[in-house]
Design brief:
By secondary structure, this protein is mainly α. The chain has a domain of about 90 residues: Severin (3-Layer(aba) Sandwich). It is about 75% helix and about 5% strand. It has a 5-stranded mixed β-sheet with strand order 2-1-3-4-5, covered by helices on one side. A hairpin with a 5-residue loop joins strand 1 and strand 2. Helix 6 runs antiparallel to helix 7 and helix 7 packs parallel to helix 9. It is rod-shaped.
Length: about 550
Amino acid sequence: MSISGPKIFKLNFDGSFDNIAYENIKEVFTIVNILAIYVTQKKTMYIWIGKKATQALKNHISNIRVLVKEEFPDFRIIRNNTVEMREEPYDFFQNLNINKEELYEQIDYQEKILLPILNDIDKLKDKSERFIKTTSYDDALKTTKEIIEMAKKIGDEALIAEQEKLISELTTKGESKKVIDEITNKTTEFEKKFHTLIEKREFLSANNILEEFKKVLGENYDLTQVPSTTEFITNGEKILKKEQDRLQRELKRLENDLLLSFKNLDTKTAVDIMREGNSLLLNLLNDEIKVKWKKLDDDLKIVKRKIELKKNIDTFFTESKLLKNNYQFKEIKDKIEELVPLVKNLNFSDYQKKLESFKKEILSAEKSYNKSLSEIVELEKLIKDNQANNLIDDILKNCEKILKISKSINKSDIVESYLTIVKQTESLKEENRLFEENQKKLKQELSNLVKSLTSALKNFELSKASEIIQKGKIALIELVDEEIKKKWDGFEKKYLAAKSLIEEIEKLSKSGLQALETKAYDESLKFYKQIVDKIEGYEN
């Protein structure tokens, strides 16, 4: 742009400029304007301030030179003068080529006409400021609108713009005040509920109230606008944090005690601790700790199952003694197979080891038992062979072995059976002993009888010999020695021969006597010779 003559700019409320033609210069010299005037030939900038210029306009004075230079970089400003209305230097009028008296006459007229209105405006401004200080924003808005109407009458555009901006600010503040009032009222309401719950130690409900408060109001309002609200939230969170810290410390202590009771399988203590812990959990906010205590509750159920299982296993161990003593290994092994998965499932390592150790013990006992049974079977075969061969001592020896083994494995039926066999065998042995003794006695008796019989037969003591023969026959009834029996048959024949001889001798003797009585001596001698021959023949 050409910069040959003075350049006049009227400062606006927003800091912008209106370029004023030089011929209209007198029109903008009003008591409410601020002008920037650049005199090209002098490279001088004048800032002229009207007496009633608004503070909003005055706030831009310090930046005028910078703003002008930015918009008009060709300007070379060497001097920069700020002048108040009616305090203009002489060169001001000379450089602008305007008449001082005419200008002041115009200003006087403005003051006469405008000052009353401006004074009223100032009063309204004071009134508005008082309303603003007391946060009576609706009243302040009403007053500001009155100021705008009066500013329009005097054409004070800067004042109009200033007040319109103020209206916008007051509207915002009014709305903010309503919000703040609502927040304050809500804060009072929620704070009362919060502290009531705290007094009742219903901390979880108190936390819910606080969270509800922050959510409901925080979604729609900036809660930091109200210090009492911020204080309520801060203090509430401190109270809850303090209680949560206490709860967590207490729960940690209980957790340690609970784990110890689990280790000791002390469910009574564990149940009491869990009950106390669950009571504390009612007011706890920490979900992680709640999850941990849910797991502890599950662990307690496992401990209860462990205790029940322990009772069952201990009972089984007690009952298995009888089963083991009765060698009912299958029942024991079946029960172990039933219990092992249960202890594994509960990670019950102590009892798993006990069961595995007991299983080894049972398998070893079963192996030993089966070995004993096999030994008994083999011995039974031997005994049958012994019985078949009438080996009484071997029978008794093998029976004793069976009895020893059977007693060691509590086979009472086998013990009873073989005790009977032993008794029978010993009885048989005794019978054999008595039989042998009797046979020996009989043999001795028969031997003695043989001697007596031999003597009796030799002496022809037939009556005595007959008695001996009868005794011998009685003894021979029980005697089993066939050789002796044969010998006695010979002795009996000798006896019969002797008896027959005697009978013949007696008969011959009788006949000899009869012949002798008849004096048949030759005949009698004949009979006696026969007697001699028979006697000699018997002896030979």
